[in-house]
Design a protein that fits this description.
Layout (H helix, E strand, L loop, with lengths): L12 E5 L16 H16 L2 E5 L17 H4 L5 H8 L3 E4 L5 H8 L6 E4 L6 H5 L2 H8 L4 E4 L23 E3 L1 H15 L5 E5 L8 H8 L4 E4 L4 H7 L3 E2 L9 H14 L2 E3 L3 E5 L8 E5 L2 E2 L4 E5 L1 H12 L3 E5 L12 H15 L3 E5 L1 H9 L8 E2 L4 H7 L5 H7 L1
Parallel strand pairs: 1-2, 1-5, 2-4, 3-4, 5-6, 7-8, 7-15, 8-10, 9-13, 15-16, 16-17
Antiparallel strand pairs: 11-12, 11-14
Helix pairs in contact: 1-3, 8-10, 9-10, 11-12
The structure holds adenosine monophosphate.
Adenosine monophosphate binds next to strand 14.
Length: 403
């Protein structure tokens, strides 16, 4: 894998695909700048070598959120909102081009001097980006003499700027530091992990996680299932789950996964009890119940104390831990305990020498809510991309850099 660390960018104009898709409030103030921060090491390396940088990114889904008259909501989705923060963090001005292609944009990029940084307008203002248009990718390619991809969050998409563009830079393309770190850490979990290897999977829907469970069954020693998706398994076994989340078209699949795990000698562990609530709300009444006997009108919203104890025991004895998806509705105080306790167990296991990777937006959010980011081995920035990696798929953004 060739990374930005292997290249001297002296005199090079590097076209860098970053992920500046940051969350913002209604006044367009950035509420979490970690994606911009994550791109800094690559940008700084290129500048320190004596190169210049053209940054390109998407922001939100402007093609899906058109204005009432059918036009693009440029005010909402402009990357101009990120310029000030990026300049502050880099400690130098970031120039901005209000179009990502076109003569003016090419003029700006071609006149960059070493040490200068230009950010192009939202790539998704053009439909061609998500369609993976070769023609559009070719235009974007004019902005740089070298291509660097540091946008792990979109590496699972074969978009113009994340994959197709790479063919315009034969022998002149590499991984940014963030992308390289993400892949190395994911690879470490999947192929070079110490055993026992435990995957903790949670979140709302089992349908999102079927492929990852299937792929992990041959690799992990333990798979702990928490969150809303656990109830589909209990319902499939004939349990009474009240009003808990369920995907009734996935009952057979749930049974098949359990059987597959049994055959493979993989310990697929389900939570036996839950904290149940009488409504999906902060001020719900709560009780503890067996997941086989949840009363009608009640729903399982967090794993219960017995499940926490059983999961903790497995986590404490693990050498490698992958965690994706919260154990319950951790956004609500009454239902955060399961996620917090499992996070604490992961932290403790890490302190005792285990290697832990936390991945997916919600698990990363939970870890940061509890203030444990520095006490686990690695927190991934990639949601969908990381999931697809663990499903065993080849990521187009990665393949394009290697081909
Ligand atoms: P996902 O995006 O599939 O990882 O799901 C994350 C979301 O699942 C979080 O917002 C949680 O609040 C939610 N969640 C976790 N457990 C439950 C549950 N038992 N019932 C409903 N939602 C849940």
């Amino acid at each position: 894998m060739i990374t930005a660390g292997n290249i001297s960018f002296s005199g090079v104009r590097a076209l860098v695909r970053v992920d500046f898709n940051v969350p913002m409030d209604k006044s367009f103030h950035i509420t979490d700048d970690s994606r911009i921060r994550a791109a800094l090491p690559t940008i700084r390396k290129i500048l320190a070598d004596g190169g210049s940088v053209v940054l390109m990114s998407h922001l939100g889904r402007p093609q899906k959120k058109l204005k009432e008259d059918g036009s693009l909501d440029r005010e909402k989705f402009t990357l101009q909102h990120t310029v000030k923060r990026a300049s502050e963090l880099l400690g130098r001005p970031v120039l901005f081009s209000d179009d990502c292609i076109g003569e003016e944009a090419f003029q700006l990029s071609s006149s960059l001097k070493p040490g200068e940084v230009l950010l192009l307008e939202n790539l998704r203002f053009y439909k061609e980006e998500e369609k993976g248009s070769r023609d559009f990718a070719g235009k974007l390619a004019r902005h740089g003499t070298y291509y660097v991809n540091d946008a792990f969050g979109t590496a699972h998409r074969a978009h113009a700027s994340t994959a197709i563009i790479a063919e315009f830079f034969p022998g002149r393309k590499c991984f940014g530091f963030l992308m390289a770190a993400e892949l190395e850490n994911a690879e470490k979990v999947m192929n070079n992990s110490g055993h026992p290897f435990t995957a903790i999977l949670g979140g709302a829907k089992v349908s999102d996680k079927i492929r990852i469970i299937e792929n992990l069954i041959g690799k992990a020693d333990n798979i702990l299932i928490g969150g809303g998706m656990a109830y589909t398994f209990f319902r499939a076994m004939g349990g009474h789950i009240g009003n808990s989340l369920t995907e009734d078209d996935k009952l057979d699949m749930a049974l098949r996964l359990m059987e597959k795990a049994r055959t493979a000698g993989c310990n697929l562990l389900l939570p036996e009890d839950s904290v149940i609530g009488d409504k999906f709300d902060h001020d719900a009444s709560t009780r503890i119940a067996s997941n086989r006997e949840i009363p009608d009108g009640w729903m399982g919203l967090d794993i219960g104390p017995e499940s926490i104890r059983a999961f903790e025991k497995v986590v404490h004895s693990s050498r490698t831990i992958l965690w994706n998806g919260p154990m319950g509705v951790f956004e609500m105080k009454k239902f955060e305990e399961g996620t917090r306790k499992i996070a604490e167990a992961v932290v403790q296991a890490t302190g005792n020498g285990a290697w832990s990777l936390i991945g997916g937006g919600d698990s990363a959010a939970a870890i940061s809510k509890f203030g444990f980011e520095k006490q686990v081995s690695y927190v991934s920035t990639g949601g969908g991309a990381l999931l697809e990696y663990f499903e065993g798929k080849t990521l187009p953004g990665v393949k394009a850099l290697i081909d």
